[in-house]
Amino acid sequence: MRHRFPPDHYANGILTGDRLTLSRAITLVESTRADDQQLAQQVLEQVLPKTGKSIRIGITGVPGVGKSTFIEAFGTYLTGLGHQLAVLAVDPTSQRSGGSLLGDKTRMETLSMNLNAYIRPSPAGDSLGGVGHRTRETMLLCEAAGFDVILIETVGVGQSETVVHGMVDFFLLLMLAGAGDELQGMKRGIMELADALLITKADGDNRAAASRARVEYQNALHLFPPTGSGWFPPVLTGSALTGEGVADLWQILQQHQQLTMQNGHRLQRRQEQQLTWFRSLLRQRLEGQFYNQPGMRERLTILEAQVRAGTLLPGPAVQTLLATSPATDRSQFE
Ligand SMILES: Nc1nc2c(ncn2[C@@H]2O[C@H](COP(=O)(O)OP(=O)(O)OP(=O)(O)O)[C@@H](O)[C@H]2O)c(=O)[nH]1
Ligand SMILES: [Mg+2]
């Protein structure tokens, strides 16, 4: 079994920027063991005053749009400016594949060797909600360790964009030129979440198409209702090969940061995110507690069979389930 240290050990190591300790603390956060979880919470509490000082950026887009490649270019640029960058991922598919950002580490070759960058693959989780919760805590640990830019990559699968949008200050949507919205799996909803759009691979033969797409998307975005933050999402073109768009994006991020810090929207957004986090965690825990009651599975099986057959309505079925404690009263199901 792995050795555990007292909470101070982790907290002190993190606050001095020690990578090994940071990684160990993240492993605690990701652990499903109750004692690890308790230790993780103690560590988080200790470092909490040192969190919140980074720019939190979410990046999404369909598989193959160029997220990893762009992060490699953008991240290298940022560390060149003296920033400390952490790259995290929310990947609902990683439970099956064992962490796709792991494979990405090889794609982010330069960045993974960069001493001012820290790449952490998505935790394998039982649910998207669980993965999101752990990524939030990991983000706080990274902030306490001194990372001032946090990039969270997610592939546009399921609701993962919404989860990531709910933990960042700035949400960037990468898109391909000429691929068609349907092809990109882009529900209108995702575009509405974006603080900026970046048309990727704007190089070689693709340049002209990328420029056209930029104008088209900019026009499309004008039709969306204003966000209320005073920010109008710009559309840029970019290329990881030529470096186009990299510096522009950083400039836009800073403008956004400045605006939303001045007008109070960044604080408001973070406060709302914290509340949403709390509520979703509470919901998860309640659900977990409920379904993990002894005998629950059997009771559910019986009730669901009756509901399916139409002999019991969902209303009374739920009532029955909530009213009786399976531990004390199982007689009626036997
Ligand atoms: N020409 C060109 N090709 C690019 C650019 N960026 C990425 N690519 C290529 O596009 C392919 C996909 O890039 P990735 O960065 O792996 O895409 P991704 O969005 O991270 O994909 P997933 O991790 O599968 O979701 C790779 O073959 C890259 O070499 C670019 O700026 N220009
Ligand atoms: Mg990738």
From TrEMBL:
Key word Zinc-finger present: no
UniProt domain AAA+ ATPase: residue ranges: 53-221
Signal peptide: none
Keyword Repeat on entry: no
EC number: 3.6.5.-
GO molecular function, one term: GTPase activity
Coiled-coil regions listed in the entry: none
Keyword annotations from UniProtKB, A to Z: Hydrolase
GO cellular component: cytoplasm
InterPro entries: AAA+_ATPase, GTPase_ArgK, P-loop_NTPase
One of the Pfam families matching this protein, by short name: MeaB
Top-level taxon: Bacteria
Family label: Belongs to the SIMIBI class G3E GTPase family. ArgK/MeaB subfamily.
UniProt name for this protein: Methylmalonyl Co-A mutase-associated GTPase MeaB
